[in-house]
Amino acid sequence: MKKRQECVDVGSEYCPCYLAETNNCITCSQLQGKEFCDCNWRGVCVYQEFVMNRNKIKQQRDYYNSSVEDIKQIGMDSYLIKLKVTKTLARQLNEPGSYVFLRDKKLPQYFDVPMSIMQSDTSNGVITIAYKAIGAKSKSLNNCKDSILIKGPYWNGAYGLGNLKKVKNQNCLVIARGISQAPSLLVIEKLIKNGNKISLVLDKGSVGEIFIHDLIKNTNIYTYEEDVMSEKGKSLITHILHNKNISLIYSAGSDLLHMNIIKIIDELGMDPYLVVTNNNELCCGEGICGGCTTRLKDGTRVKPCKTQIDSRQIIERRVLLD
Predict the structure, then answer these.
(1) pLDDT digits (tens, 9 = 90+) for 232-282
(2) How many CB atoms lie within 10 A of CB 11?
(3) Which of left, alpha, beta for 275 (phi over 0: left; psi -120 to 50: alpha)?
(4) pLDDT tens, position by position, 99-118
(5) Nearest by Cα to 169 from 96, 241, 248
(6) pTM for the structure as a whole
(7) 265 found inside a domain
(8) Are both 274 and 176 inside the same structural domain?
(9) In angstroms, what is the C-alpha Rg of the chain?
């Protein structure tokens, strides 16, 4: 039996969306054109919300003209940018897995580029984003000295987000490589808030710099620096897993890194909760364009921009495709 899918937007002010209006809802079977009710109950009935809204979608995400507070280089082709946003948006983005789309306001919409949130200052309405300028979209952000277009909030920047809420007063392992150090901060913050102790393995990666050192000063964090793709790095991760009774692993990096972590825990015969960064190519963030659509091993087609997927399922499939 195929597992029913979970949409990360269910229960938010952006649900129901265009997918519901076109009978392509990720969660609701009736808004998929079926006659029966068969959903993952999340405390909200998407169908009822749709009917109560006169069979129309709710207001969807829009673009904001955000001022650039600061931008600086942090490593090879990598930058930190601080953007002024509304306090409401800052609050909405102060969650693990949050991301936005950014664009130079002088360029057309297909220059939208998804960027994970590194920090969100809810008191002052400022968000911080780290990015690598490697393609046409990301390089164009370097030209935004005064203002930038921002669209959000989006929340599916990681798979296994529900696991972060389950783990309390446990030992957790966070592995962050390269530019993926950035989204790790909100995860670390969430884990600490729930009373967890963290072992943090940092890898400079292609950025060539550990840029979150000053932001992780906490007595509950045990920090290591190592190339996690090397044999020495794999041995370090194995040692931590073997000796610290790890309940949750957060892997921030490439799909190959995620796959290596899965192989290690399988070899050890362990089954901790697994949370990984979403590395799919995201274009619209609304499940409409189909650019991110992936077919899992069981034949299920999923929209990774909005669908919470089991970490193993999506990683094993993507590595196989690559």
Answers:
(1) 999 999 999 999 999 999 999 999 999 999 999 999 999 999 999 999 999
(2) 13
(3) beta
(4) 999 999 999 999 999 999 99
(5) 248
(6) 0.94
(7) yes
(8) yes
(9) 20
Position 297 scores a pLDDT of: 81
CA distance 226 to 203: 5
In order, the DSSP letters of 140-171 are HGGG-SSEEEEEEEE--SEE-HHHHHH--SSE
Who's near 189: CB < 8 A, 6+ residues apart? none
- Confidence class for position 134, pLDDT limits 50, 70, 90: very high
Strand order through the sheet with 158-159: 158-159, 273-277, 246-252, 171-177, 197-203, 221-225
Which helix H or strand E contains 183, and what residues bound it?
A: helix 181-193
For residue 186, give the nearest of 116, 255, 124, 251 by alpha carbon: 116
What's the rounded Cα separation, in Å, for the pair 20 and 38? 15
Token pair 């998804």: residue: 114
Report the number of distinct structural domains present in the chain. 2
Q: What is the largest CA-CA distance in the chain?
A: 59
Same domain, 146 and 223: no
Residue range of the domain that includes 117: 63-154
* Burial (Cβ within 10 Å: 0-12, 13-18, ≥19) of residue 193: exposed
CA–CA separation, 245 vs 305, rounded Å? Answer: 32
What's the pLDDT at 228? Answer: 97
Among 105, 133, 154, the domain-final residue is 154
Domain boundary among 120, 154, 188: 154
Mean pLDDT, the chain, whole residue set: 93
Distance between CA 2 and CA 256 in Å, rounded?
Answer: 26
List, for residues 160-191, the tens digit of each pLDDT value.
Answer: 999 998 999 999 999 999 999 999 999 999 99
Q: Are residues 85 and 191 in the same domain?
A: no
Q: Would you say residue 1 lies in a domain?
A: no
* For residues 81-86, average pLDDT: 97
- The per-residue pLDDT for 299 is 83
